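I hope you will forgive my troubling you with a question about protein structure. I should value your view on which stretches of the chain appear to form regular backbone elements. Here, with my thanks, is the record as I have it:
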Amino acid sequence: MTDQEYDNLWNRIGNLSPKEQKDLLAEFARRMRAGNHSRRSIMELAGLGKEIWEGIDAQDYVNQERDSWDE
């Protein structure tokens, strides 16, 4: 979910009446207790952002970072 989608969702919830908000919260809690959510694996993140590091030598990068500590 993007930040914009998240903000939009909060705005929509904020426009509900207090009773509707309470009902929504109760339904959400019911679904969470029922286990209607999937567990995610940290392994799903494997390789994420790897394009950022293309062409960069890992040891050179570490050496540059360490050298910057002495400045």
